[in-house]
Amino acid sequence: MKLLSTLVLSAALAVSAFAQKSYTIKFAHVVASATPKGKAADFFAKRLEEITNGQIKVQVFPSAQLYDDDRVFMAMKMDNVQMAAPSFSKFTPLAPAFQLFDLPFIFRDTAHLHKVLDGEVGEAIKQKIEDKGFVALDYWDAGFKQFSSSKKPLIVPDDAKGQKFRIMSSKVLEEQTRAVGGNPQVLPFSEVYSALQQGVVDAAENPLSNFYNSKFHEVQSSLTISDHGYLGYLVVVSDKFWKSLPDDLKAKVKQAMKEATQFEREESAKDEAILLAKVEEYAKNTGKLQITKLTPAQKAEWQKVMSTIYPKFYDVIGKDLIEKTMNTK
Ligand code: LMR
């Protein structure tokens, strides 16, 4: 009897210790806290702490304070970081099919993009990174990429000839740059401002949220609203950490993420017009930034040259995934 009650007591103690076990998530990203990704990471942290009554704490490290995107995957494998939201290009060395999202002019607009990400194609791409031992949660937006330069405004494809472009590590971006006669240079995001300032590179491609919040407008003399490609993110979790979480907390992480994703997409959509107005105001006040919005005919010229690279990626991405993306209505 005594033995039985001791056993019951120790089992109860073990259960309560397990129920109270607390967890910490380090969430590393490379952009400013004021970007949609930065705001959504903070939103997620607050919300998850709330709904778990503090059982899961989330520490957000913006601006590559902890790791840049190229090293964050290794850090996650070692469980030094539990969450990150790298842009699609950063996944491509691990899972080359992510290059699908880098293809120039693959997405017609945000509605098309969301249909693809939230549908069969998005799921198939998530699986590719799950196969590499990461847990894939939701897709987040940054926005369509715009060209900028300090050498020559990029209005027609010929303007790119001989310019050095900072690109993220992605074969598609390399080929896209070469297709217009530019010289691609892979650099981590944390080095872009100084590389542009010191003329290590002449040109770049960024969504307005990164262009403005990282103050690239201060070190570029022209901005072209080209919408030629898309930059988005996938939020991933360390497999080791995920496996350590009980099921009820896993469900809460998913719930907080779902709310953060909705918030992130709304912020991103709202930001587009606000940020364009801000760069326009900067251009007007300083006279130091020439802004050009490409006409549909000018866009078509870039598209014509850049889309010649698609066949080079049929094997690595899968022609079926490219076609499914293009045919998504
Ligand atoms: C970049 O390197 O340009 C982007 O991936 C940065 C980001 O996370 O938006």
TrEMBL record:
Coiled coil feature spans: none
Transport keyword on record: yes
Signal peptide as annotated in the record: 1-19
Keyword annotations from UniProtKB, A to Z: Signal, Transport
Highest taxon listed in the record's lineage: Bacteria
Keyword Cell division attributed: no
GO CC annotations on file: outer membrane-bounded periplasmic space
Listed GO biological process terms: transmembrane transport
The family this protein is said to belong to: Belongs to the bacterial solute-binding protein 7 family.
NCBIfam families xrefs: dctP, TRAP_S1
Name recorded for this polypeptide: C4-DICARBOXYLATE-BINDING PERIPLASMIC PROTEIN
The species this protein was found in: Wolinella succinogenes (strain ATCC 29543 / DSM 1740 / CCUG 13145 / JCM 31913 / LMG 7466 / NCTC 11488 / FDC 602W) (Vibrio succinogenes)
Gene that this polypeptide is encoded by: DCTP
